[in-house]
Structures are given as structure tokens and as C-alpha cells.
Input
Amino acid sequence: MPNKGLASSKPWMLALAALLLLVGAGGLLWACAPSPEVAVEVATRTPKPSFTPTVAAQAPTATLPLPTATIVRAAEQATNTIVIANTATSTATALPPTDTAVPPTVTNTPVPPTSTPVPATDTPAPTATPSPPPAKSLRMNSPEYGMQAFLWWRPEVASRDMGAIHDAGFTWIKQDFAWREIEGTGKGQFDWSRTDWIVSEANKLGIDLMVRVDRQPYWARASEAENGPPDKYQDLADFCFALASRYQGRIRAYEIWNEPNLAREWGGQPPDPGAYVKLLKTAYAAIKRADPNAMVISAGLTPTGTWSNEAMPDDVYLDNMYQAMGGNSNGYFDVLGAHGAGYKAPPEMSPDEVASNPAYGGHRIFCFRRVEDLRNIMVKYGDGNKQVALLEFGWTSDPIHEAYAWHRVSEEEKADYLVRAYKWAKENWSPWIGLMNLIFFANPDWTEQNEEYWWAVTEPGYPELKPRPAYNALKAMPK
Output
């Protein structure tokens, strides 16, 4: 049948068709309209900030990174006020706080890695860290017996020498932990291989270690002095904190620097007691933060009567230290360090006797008992309760170096004087004398051309140990 079109349809059919068209158009318009927004919970990760955020009332996590001793100053080295702040070390990165705690349920979804991996240290940590021995007192017996040794380069020699010192009944060893030999390649780049071994071997023998911290890395000072304070005292604080943290409870005492009353030990600059006590306070705070039971000993001052840009008398220097400390050494050192070469005088001879006798040098510094003058300065400032450590003392038999030949003694006299020195101290300096550390247990590489060779109580060499008369006498000495 041919299609005649809508025009020929009945009116009711036209109305129905129009209605259907309207309904269909409405549905099409509804389908094309945008849907309303629906809230969806999406898990997000808090981004790692470029700095460590400060969070109010933040609960402590189970494991916290070790803090460094950050010293905040208005101007570098311009004030004695030191503020210690907690900041993370380079070996651990604190994770940022998250808004949602991880529920303690097991899921099939693996836990993603943290946004910031913990960086590896340059030197792997030892597989088993020995437990530290029980904490010891901040006071020493009066006296205590020590020798300075050279344990750094050759473990086989160091093992022999530590054993011989122990066999002689000496319970302390002084060893230089040169800063540049540990952190020499760059800030935070540590090599603990030698120090780990030395500390471990000393602990096995029950020997107390007193380590001397000096000789800055060359990166820490613009002027390449052989031994001078760092440009930023913070660098020394960070090193001391790392050192004392690693060996907490295993190193008993730290000497901060050496003979700063000599320009050659202070970067070639004129001696500066005020600057030294700022350095000392900085190191003290860092060490105590890491190991409160460790003793901090001030640098041994060399006896000298010279006062110039090259040197300052030890008693004048110490008096100026106390003035710079405001007359109070608390927070600077636990024990005062001193040096006490005997020169030509027997150990019982007083500074007054030596000063009045040109044959013995004609000055108060030229005797073992010079340390009594330094002790009197401590008492003057109300510091009599603290002890003194003789960090270097002895007599030399040197016949070839002009600076020493005038006061040389024989090897037999050296042996006799060393034993009598310990006896004098025990009978006359107790309780204020602490460690008495003699020089030296010989470096095996020394020859007669080394001035230190003539102070030693043993002959250089390896593998055979050749004691001099002094070693045998000290071994037999009542302790």
C-alpha cells in the first residue's frame, strides 16, 4: 500500500505521535546532562618535605635518628653561649608524619617502600657491636698509670705493644685519634676501620683509652696549617659527637687539642686562651650529649717561659682560660690536662729550688713538679675539687738534639726518676692527681734522629720487643 504521509492520518493519531516525540526528546536531554559530583575517598601519600618539619605534640616513634650537636651562634665563635639542637644525622632520615595510621591487619597489597630511603654510610657498621662495659666514675684513682703508644698503622705492632703495657701493670693508654685520619675526605665521610680495631683490642685487655682529638681535616680550615682549630667550631662538635656516639662507654676520656699555648699547635696564630675555651666548650657539649659518662680533659699545656706571638707561658695561659670561663670550668672540662717534663731535675725538686739554681735551668718550668703551679691556679678559682691529668711526662737521654742535650739523663737515671715520680705523686698529690701518662712506648719506626726516640721506655723495632731499663723498673714498681 502506498504511504500517504501524516497529513492523511486521523487527528488522534497525530496527537499521539507528537506526545511520543516529546517524551523521547526529554529522555535524550536527560541522558546528555552532566552527572552530579560524587565524593570518593582516595588514599594519598604525604610528600617528603625538603626539610624536617616541626610537629607540635608529636609522639616519639619507636626508633629515632641520632641527633647531632648543632651549635647555634649569633656570630661564629663570638659568644660562650651554646645552644644544642636535635637534628638528624646524615645516616638516618626521619620519615614525615602521616595522617592515617596503618591498620594492624594483613592485606594482600604489599607495603610500598618509604618515600625517602635511608642512605648507606661510607663505612659499613660492624656486624656485631660489643656491649659497652659498665660506666665508670668521672674521677680517677690517685694516681692512675698510663703510657702513650702508637697503635694506628700496624695492627700486629699495636697488639704486641698493648699487651706489653698491660703486662707492666699500666691500665691506661693514650692514643692520638687524629681528626683528619677519620673524617679526612669530606664532611660526614668517616673511616672507622682503625679506631674500631684499637677500641676493641683495648676493651678486651681491660685497658682504659684516653684519645687525643686534634689535627683538623684540611677541608675544615682555609689555611692548611698542620694543626689548627677549624674555621667552624660546629665541624669539631659534629665529629666529637659522632666519635663519642660510636664508642659510647668504650672510650673513657677525650683530650681536646694539644698544647694550644704554642702557635705551631694553633694554626700558626698567636695563642688565644679565649678562643680555645670556646672550642673546648663546644667539644664538651657534643661529647657529653653522646656519652655523659665520658671524661673530657682540657689540652695539655706545654711548660714554657716564653711570651710572644709564638708561645704563652702555661700558667699565664691557664689563668686566662679561667678568666674566659668566668672563673668556672663547669661545662668546659672534667679534668685539667697538663704536661710535666722533668728536664734535668730529679722528681722531688720543687719549682722554687729549680728557679734558684742555674744548673737546672733557673726557671720554675724546668721540673716535674711544675704542675703544682697550675694546681694552685685551679685552687685560686675555686676549682680544687677537680683532678689534674699529667698527659705527658718523662725524662730524655737525648745527646744529639741541642734543645734537649743540656738536660739529658742516663737511661738508668730515667728509670729511677720515673719510678720516684709515681711514688712522689702517690704520697704528695693524692687525691687531686689522676692519670699520669708517661712518654713513650716507642713507635717501631723511630730512629736516633727522632727526638721522641730518646724519651721512650722501649727500643723501636718489630717483632722483637726490647725493653729499656725504664720499662723493667716500671713493670716491677708497686702500683
The chain is about 30% helix and 15% strand.
